[in-house]
């Protein structure tokens, strides 16, 4: 079976969030199971494209409205990522440093999708299935069926994977002239509430859609930023598949980015060594339990609650815990956290930004990981944390609810709170501190969660089963 994954993020080419981790791992595991899985992504002026000798495979051009666009298809001839990665470069559109936040983003993604389909047609590539990831490539299922130029792909099956349904790619109808010529009778498939909505279009036109956890699938039927009715109507297409993690990259036994490698049987000494090294670097007391947060400073991540959560925790346990924050985003949240640094010297440390090696060191050093998310379609941080013997403290939402079982329940290994409030999160942290104060309980939880299987092997098989059904 030949499957193409189409995504604007793919680790290590370009990473903003979990989308990149998924697309950078799932195809490799599918290939191990006999699927000829490719990835196609845009070109970015980043270290991957600068440091790799990419081979030029194809050149072509097309009209986007009144603009003539030329494109190139490039590839690493060694397939060093474990799967073929094809990169589409369009001068002036897909050759920039950042992935998002450009004012002509709609034009960028339309050009990417058009170039992708134009390349398939030019080289007579007809895969068995195309797996589209998020709204950025949501027009592809429509164009394959209804664009006059690409109707030879009409019978190719399509799967849409929704990593975050809050973002839908809305654009006004004046952008329609930028699309390849399509059957005008089908304009309604592009429309949702008076706008072109690529995510809604993909849901209408794909053969199946997946969410990145069963819990998130249930949530979008009742809360989906305006698409609830659509998901309900198309529910027969829906499947929830929990993301996996790349357990070769996220593995404390093999990790070259941490101070000392360790495994399940040596987790106690391994965590102690990593915490001592890490806390020494960031100025925290390594004799205290370490609570960490890693993520974007955004409302959906509950990051606006962090300052209040920190104050609640320190008001009850100031001398019993250290806190480390790794993230960036909302300026107001950053300022509030910066102000707290002066109030809690030696107890709170913050790194503003994102650093991949530092994230690995945090997972290896921390005792607890806080995820107060309002929206979390799957969540990967809690899976990484458990792989490193770090105990998650999470809000019961989306994939967090699917992957973390509260210690109070049978077979539990984490701490879950149901109210999205600073006081509830702080109470869950306090409960966790009380539990792990017993070294026997701490060791038992660590070994239980490190034994859990969240690898891509299981999830990749579920995707392939869906592909086979289609």
From TrEMBL:
Occurrences of domain Glycosyl transferase family (ranges): 283-434
Keywords: Glycogen biosynthesis, Glycosyltransferase, Transferase
CDD domains per record: GT5_Glycogen_synthase_DULL1-like
EC number, as in UniProt: 2.4.1.21
Reaction equations catalysed: [(1->4)-alpha-D-glucosyl](n) + ADP-alpha-D-glucose = [(1->4)-alpha-D-glucosyl](n+1) + ADP + H(+)
Positions of the Starch synthase catalytic domain: 2-231
SUPFAM superfamilies the record matches: UDP-Glycosyltransferase/glycogen phosphorylase (SSF53756)
Residue positions binding ADP-alpha-D-glucose: 15
Pathway where this protein functions: Glycan biosynthesis; glycogen biosynthesis
Keyword Transcription regulation: no
Gene3D superfamilies per UniProt: Glycogen Phosphorylase B
InterPro entries listed in its UniProt record: Glyco_trans_1 (IPR001296), GS/SS (IPR011835), Starch_synth_cat_dom (IPR013534)
PANTHER family: ALPHA AMYLASE DOMAIN-CONTAINING PROTEIN, GRANULE-BOUND STARCH SYNTHASE 1, CHLOROPLASTIC/AMYLOPLASTIC
Family note: Belongs to the glycosyltransferase 1 family. Bacterial/plant glycogen synthase subfamily.
Chain's role: Synthesizes alpha-1,4-glucan chains using ADP-glucose.
Protein name in UniProt: Glycogen synthase
Native organism: Sphingobacterium oryzagri
């Amino acid at each position: 079976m030949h499957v193409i994954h189409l995504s604007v993020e793919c680790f290590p080419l370009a990473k903003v969030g979990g989308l990149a981790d998924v697309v950078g791992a799932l195809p490799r595991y599918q290939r191990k199971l006999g699927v000829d899985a490719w990835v196609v992504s845009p070109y970015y002026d980043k270290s991957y494209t600068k440091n790799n000798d990419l081979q030029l495979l194809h050149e072509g051009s097309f009209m986007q409205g009144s603009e003539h666009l030329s494109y190139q298809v490039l590839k690493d001839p060694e397939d060093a990522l474990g799967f073929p990665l094809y990169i589409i470069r369009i001068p002036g559109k897909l050759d920039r440093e950042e992935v998002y936040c450009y004012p002509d983003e709609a034009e960028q993604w339309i050009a990417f999708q058009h170039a992708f389909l134009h390349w398939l047609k030019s080289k007579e590539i007809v895969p068995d299935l195309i797996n589209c990831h998020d709204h950025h490539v949501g027009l592809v299922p429509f164009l394959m069926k209804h664009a006059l130029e690409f109707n030879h792909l009409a019978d190719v099956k399509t799967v849409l994977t929704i990593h975050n349904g809050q973002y839908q790619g809305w654009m006004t109808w004046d952008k329609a002239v930028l699309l390849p010529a399509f059957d005008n009778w089908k304009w309604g498939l592009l429309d949702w509430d008076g706008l072109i909505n690529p995510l809604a279009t993909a849901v209408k036109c794909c053969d199946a859609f997946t969410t990145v956890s069963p819990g998130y699938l249930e949530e979008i039927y009742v809360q989906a930023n305006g698409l609830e009715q659509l998901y309900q109507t198309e529910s027969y297409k829906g499947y929830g598949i929990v993301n996996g993690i790349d357990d070769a990259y996220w593995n404390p036994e093999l990790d070259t980015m941490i101070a000392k490698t360790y495994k399940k049987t040596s987790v106690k000494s391994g965590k102690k060594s990593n915490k001592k090294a890490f806390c020494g670097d960031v100025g925290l007391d390594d004799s205290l339990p370490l609570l960490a947060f890693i993520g974007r400073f955004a409302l959906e991540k509950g990051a606006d609650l962090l300052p209040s959560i920190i104050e609640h925790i320190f008001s009850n346990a100031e001398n019993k815990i250290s806190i480390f924050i790794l993230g960036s985003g909302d300026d107001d949240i950053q300022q509030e956290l910066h102000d707290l640094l002066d109030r809690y010297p030696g107890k709170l440390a913050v790194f503003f930004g994102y650093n991949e090696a530092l994230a690995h060191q945090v997972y290896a050093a921390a005792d607890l990981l806080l995820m107060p998310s309002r929206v979390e379609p799957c969540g990967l941080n809690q899976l990484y944390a458990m792989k490193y013997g770090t105990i998650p403290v999470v809000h019961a939402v989306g994939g967090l609810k699917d992957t973390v079982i509260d210690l109070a329940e049978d077979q539990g290994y984490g701490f879950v709170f149901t109210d999205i409030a600073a006081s509830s999160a702080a109470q869950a942290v306090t409960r966790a501190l009380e539990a792990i104060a017993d070294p026997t309980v701490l060791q038992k939880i660590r070994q239980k969660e490190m034994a859990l299987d969240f690898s891509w092997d299981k999830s990749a098989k579920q995707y392939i089963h869906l592909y086979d059904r289609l």
